[in-house]
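User: If only I could read backbone structure tokens as easily as an amino acid sequence. Those tokens are not coordinates but codes from a learned vocabulary of shapes. Could you go through the record with me and say what the backbone is doing? Here is the record:
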Amino acid sequence: MTKADRHLKILCSNFPFGFGEPFLEVELNYLADHFRSITIFTTSGGGGSTVRQFAIPEQVKVVRMDPAVTFLKKVTSLWRLILDSEIRDEMRTVRVAYHSQLSWGKIKTMLVSKLRALKIRSFLGRYLRENGGGQTFLYSYWADDSALALTYLKREFPELTVFCRVHGWDLYFERSPYYYLPFRKSIFNGLDAVFAISENGRNYLLSHFDTVINKGRIYQSRLGIRMAERTGPHSRNFRRFRLISCSNLIPIKRVGLIVRALSHVKELEVDWVHFGSGKEAGNIRSLATELLSPKENIDFHFPGRIPNWELLKYYADHMVDLFISLSRYDGIPVSIMEAMSFGIPAIATDVGGVSEIVINGRTGFLVDLEVDPEHVAEVIEHVASMETESYEAMRDEAKNVWGTFYSADINYPEFCKKILSLGQTQV
């Protein structure tokens, strides 16, 4: 089929509202080249922002839905624990394939996931029946309840092409409070394809779920960043060392560890800027005031959360020496991709797929998950004291790795080509 016959439905959390899922803004422009229409379904319901923060192509329509499950619905649906064959199979999978004990937390998680997926399926099913025609592709940006809903729709409409991405929180059991994510077997077998955003992620899927999934449906497809229109000059002439971090201010990002590390930097003059906000904002500001304000060699700034284009403009306008991310969990942080597209090396914790972009000693430096703040301070001071030739080589390598593996102009056309090939098998 031609572009005129193809229609894409994307399920995500809240894009283009709020500041979440910023990477979809770039990807959409490539998808728009291959589909006559694109409809984005947001699943955050009334709990998400209503302020549009991202530009979207002309043919993209946004529809909001609310799959939230009320307490009464949860209680009245407890019968599913006994009668629903998929839930009973999921319980067996937990015990036999995951070698794990069932807990009330796991059971509650699978029940709510099923109820939310059914609501999404019902909403999308009506939409498809009322807005049918042509070849339809359904794309869940996360391997969550939306992806589960797509497996149900696939049973109802076999001609659909259904697929999802899988990132970090929706991939690694270690990030779940119950060390469990629901219906991996149903999702990874019921979709036409699952695209992990990192090699580490794909390997995790193949090793942790090897007994329950169809391995032939698991692919790697990295996210990408566009080449900057301009990059500011960089100089090693004496000036304050500029350190940048960018993340939500939430516990897993461990921005407080950056504060503590900087408190151990003895003589190097540092300007640290953190972009982002979150529920820990007040605590982080208080900690920085307590530990860093007395130090004459450290300045810190918290501009808060800003639009993505403003962050990229900041990189273009300022000389930045090092990016830092000490997150407890990560897939492959888009924040690091963005920094490296400007040739900025990074220091980061060796978690998830981070080592695929922060190559120790080449594009930056990796530190252990349980690193102490003194060691982080030493790495920062080491970068600042590197010989100019070695440091510039690291900047060049950071830019090269981004251009080879994380360029939007390479990754997204390949992704589009792959999903269109999936559609050919459905015709």
Residues 104-130 form the longest helix (27 residues). The domain at 241-405 is CATH 3.40.50.2000 (Rossmann fold). The chain is about 40% helix and 15% strand.
